[in-house]
Amino acid sequence: MIRVLVADDQPLVRAGVTALLDAEPDLEVVAVAADGGEALEAARRTRPDVACLDVRMPVRNGIEVARELCAPGADPEMPVLMLTTFDLDDYVFGALEAGASGFLLKDADPDTITGAVRQVAAGNGTLDQALTRRVLREFVSRRSLQPVTGARADGLLTARERDVLLLLAQGMSNEDIAAALVVEVSTVKSHLARMLPKLGVRSRLQAVVWAYQNRVVAVPGAEDGRPA
């Protein structure tokens, strides 16, 4: 059973997401919160497997809460899925930089939301399909998320770690990567655990952004100026 914290300052949204998740046989909402302060208290009290956070909340916004929950050595440290009503803004980038494992638009279909919770709980990252290219292109064009450059990474990453990074950037899960490389899932997790600190990132999603940002992989449409 995947235990979930739902935090949103809009009662209807909070109730709707809670009902959606509780209707799934493998998901259980163990706490709800109406603001960021309540969310942190509930996270510490119930220690869920995933924190599903609204971006804009009173007291403490979702970015601040994610930064505390995703920090290395945090107590508790847990994966965060952000929900947003925004197409693209600094709140979304802030969530990514805070270490969130993924973000979705609130109008995503129910299967996408429940699937994202499962993916995040499994240690995988998730990006809203409608935002992926735009977010990556924006980071490439105007953000400098991490100090490690692609050239430096060639000397930092092993050949197999680089393989894992390239497959990760294609949106593959740990299971997909393991199948592609013909290794155990535990081996993929070990490569990720060693790779992320080398790149100076805290999550799979940040590693993907880093890969695009440093031209390890190319953003579709970026070379010819086509809109994403």
TrEMBL record:
Residue stretches making up the Response regulatory domain: 3-121
Superkingdom of source: Bacteria
InterPro entries for this protein: CheY-like_superfamily (IPR011006), NreC/VraR/RcsB-like_REC (IPR058245), Sig_transdc_resp-reg_C-effctor (IPR016032), Sig_transdc_resp-reg_receiver (IPR001789), Tscrpt_reg_LuxR_C (IPR000792), WalR-like (IPR039420)
One annotated GO biological process: regulation of DNA-templated transcription
Domain HTH luxR-type: 150-215
Transmembrane residue ranges: none
Modified residues (4-aspartylphosphate): 54
Name the UniProt record assigns to this protein: DNA-binding NarL/FixJ family response regulator
Organism: Curtobacterium luteum
